[in-house]
Design brief:
The protein is mostly beta strands and 146 residues long. The chain is built from one helix and ten strands, in the order E-E-E-E-E-E-E-E-E-E-H. The chain has a five-stranded antiparallel beta sheet with strand order 1-2-8-5-10, with no helix packed on it. Strands 7-6-9 form a three-stranded antiparallel beta sheet, with no helix packed on it. Strands 3-4 form a two-stranded antiparallel sheet.
Length: 146
Amino acid sequence: MLDRITSPEGTLLALVARSGDTPPGVNFISDPGYPLQVAVNVYASGDAVRAHRHPDRDLHISTIQEVLHIDSGRVIADIMDHSGALVQSVPLSGGDTIFFIAGGHGLRILEKTKIIEVKQGPYRGISADKVYLDPPVKGKDAGVRG
């Protein structure tokens, strides 16, 4: 169900959930201690998720994690370690989801692509929320806000 991407030192950098074979039920792919909890859930017709809400609580988050779901299109996700060294390039297409746990990442968009992105907020702007690991490429950085 999952492709694991680790640094040469063994640090888990990302998990890729491919569209397709996922066992029925709630399948958490994130470690219970991560600041972002991610699950791939498969339900049968007639199942239900009981109505609920999540109680307010004070949290201290020091690690920002991110999830991208490729709704449609094709990309290559470049996975880097914390220093910015490229560890692996991963092709993703419609239905695939990648969970960035540690290190850095970049995307190369191969065709028109729709991505659903989830990460901790609030958003404070590019200069406060990103540390770039590569030089800018004129006209190529589509991440104007994110």
